[in-house]
Amino acid sequence: MSASQWRRAMNSGASSAVRPLPAASARAPGQAATGSAAEPPAPPRLEALRRAVSLRHVVVLAGLLVFPFVATPFITFQVASQSLVLGLIALSLTFLAGYGGMVSLAQMTVAGIAGYAVAVLGHSSAAEISLGWPWWAALPAALFVCVVCATLIGWLSVRTEGIYTIMITLAIGVAFYYLVLQNYSVFNGFQGLREVYPPKVLGIAWRDPMPFYFLTLACALAGYFLVKWVVRAPFGIAMQGIRDNPRRMNALGYHVVGHRVAAYALAGLIAAVGGILFVWYNGLITPGSVGTSWLINILVIAVLGGMKHPLGAFLGAIVFVLLQTFAIDLIDRERFNLVIGGVFLAIVLFSPDGLLGLWEKLRLRLGPGRAQPHHPRRQK
Amino acid sequence: MKQSKRVWMRSALGAAAMVALSGAAWAQQGQPVKIGLLATLEGPFAAGGADGMRGAELAVKQRGGVVAGRPIQIIKASSDAKPDVAVNATRKLVEQDKVDIMVGPLSGGEGIAVKDYAKTQPNITFINGSSGAQAATLVNPAPNFFRFNTEGAQWMQGLGKAALDKGYKRVMVIAEDYAFPYSQVQGFMAEYCKLGGKVPEKAWVPLGGKDYSSVIAKIPKNVDALLVVLGGADAVNFLNQYESAGGDKPILGGSITVSQDVLNYRGKRRDSLVGTLSAGPVADSYDGAEWKAFVADYQKTYPVSAGGFPSPSLFAYVYYQNMKAALDGLAAVNGDLSGNQVKYREALSKMVLKTPTGDVRLDANRQAIGSTFVTEVVKDAQGNLFNKVHRKVDNVDQLLGMKKEEFQMGSRDVPACP
Description:
The structure holds two protein chains of two kinds.
Chain A: H1 2-11, H2 13-16, H3 22-25, H4 28-34, H5 45-52, H6 55-70, H7 73-100, H8 107-121, H9 135-157, H10 163-182, E1 193-194, H11 209-230, H12 234-244, H13 246-251, H14 256-282, E2 284-285, H15 292-305, H16 311-330, H17 336-350, H18 354-366
Antiparallel strand pairs in A: 1-2
Helix pairs in contact in A: 6-11, 7-11, 7-14, 7-15, 7-16, 8-9, 8-14, 9-14, 11-14, 12-14, 15-16, 15-18, 16-17
Chain B: H1 2-21, E1 33-40, H2 46-62, E2 66-67, E3 70-79, H3 83-96, E4 101-103, H4 108-118, E5 125-127, H5 135-138, E6 145-146, H6 159-165, E7 170-176, H7 179-194, E8 198-205, H8 213-218, E9 225-229, H9 232-244, E10 251-253, H10 260-263, E11 277-280, H11 289-301, H12 314-332, H13 342-350, E12 353-355, E13 358-362, E14 368-379, E15 385-396
Parallel strand pairs in B: 1-3, 1-4, 4-5, 5-6, 7-8, 7-9, 9-10, 10-11
Antiparallel strand pairs in B: 2-3, 11-14, 12-13, 13-14, 14-15
Helix pairs in contact in B: 2-12, 3-4, 6-7, 12-13
């Protein structure tokens, strides 16, 4: 939603003077995490790494690595791994919406396409449908199919803006839902495809809680750093320029549609990895996994966490999964959805930027000295 | 909702106790037995799921909440009829809440997914809720998954014969396009085709479809009746459209087709519903003494004012049956769940379960062999329609009396007798 606001603000030339140039603003997302002061341009690679890694990065990483040894298998698998998987899918939306200004509801559809592709190309309970390719052929093929589909979806929807993007991606998502619901020859209809498990590679059962956790953690970290890297690369900077003022970027000679489609393709790749992990997590895929409720759940996760930084997607996913799992213990059995809705409402009401915004506010209030480099990056 | 509050309090206390005790070995006698109870409290079957929980709680209440000196503690979870959600909820009950016995889930796809999950938890005993997919116990059965209710195909036994007795020699099938109706159609056709009936045409329609005009146009002139396996609103929609298209063929119903909302149907064809045959695991008007006692107990415990149904639904009854099996089995081993519940599972496998509709035994796949009712719609003195028991068929097994080699699971094309 705010994407269209930014654009409107930008297109009325007055406010554009106040705004930093795209190139300058592009550095902000990285800084929001590290909190470091302005960096000198292009330091040597190792030096950059040393500067980028601070104590709390090490602490967080160590915590993530030690976590499965401390937590129960249930918490490791159902809470932590599921959060990482959903966070990865939501990350693709954060990238599109937060840095590209395109709110796509079809990210779960893209993930679902990857999931169905793995089930159809690889192994599942429906022997007459699944082609039984080995994993090293099925996985790349599934990723490829999914990226192609994501590109097509992007190509269909980039010419629209704001609410219209949401509408067209919602329409694509719902169309895909009905396709898989009613097609029996490829998608096995209402029942979907079951017994889709990760392959046994290196003698490790990858669906056991701990291996699966590290698998999802590796993918999630890869996705996280990919997004962090891309948004500071020339392509990402151009993306943010397009988000803020497509007309000006066009005048500067950037191919606006091309950049946007490429962003969809990249987001599609991230969602595809998430989608494959999600199928493995559930062990099955049914039309319900790509239904409207999941399309919206991904949006909820992204908004809940905050779209200013890739970290938001994962924070949102953790809160979402915790609520889904434990809300029923908090309140009478028929009312637990009220808790879930109430928490979402409260977060969005008190912090339009989600959990990240809440964190920012707390820091502003508690540590005025440290808040200095955190001037609001975007206008509301 | 005093009951549920107390149950909740107990679960909270139990969870606290579990945290305090974790690690320490505990003496079994006198310790509560934790039973996880999963039903759909969200989504399309929310009303049925809530009634299923009532049925299960009724079974616990009839034992005063104690079996062999061990108090029964129920921990509930909810799904929305999606298999992934059901597995997540089950996993939480088993791995986080550490239940000893699991009862659930409600719908077919969920049942298969929970059965797959049961294989990863061989030390916990899983008992079905009301899910009725054939595959749950027929294909790759889990050794610790028990189903004390009959399933979709078994529920249709006897209907084929009843239809032929009425003189319906050719029948067209109109059914929703997923596992449960496949089973239902198979249950009907297995018997009907064997006795010489013909099914020249099958129409599989999407679940929740609104427009049946193309199906109605396809109905051949030379069929004697229609077998309609549609649920809830779909059935009413179909009847309305069939009536406005001038249809006049008699109808045979699936187990969830001729429900109260169909009987309350007010169209012109209302009278033509009289004589409609259907079959299922329960019949409201069955006059067995135990069934009447069960219905009275349900009505007393859950009066309509407190959210209960006027009479127990299929879900309430089937959940009751499975929960009763869980508790009877527990009583048979005197509350002893030690040794990874091996003795308990043995007792369950051998048990003859006394239910309000007759005895239920298990086959080698731990699937129930039980009774089915063929019912017929009749009009009472006040002009209300209701389902009267036409015939009770006992000892219906999952292979429908066929040999294992010749039995094939129901699908769109199996069985066929055009």
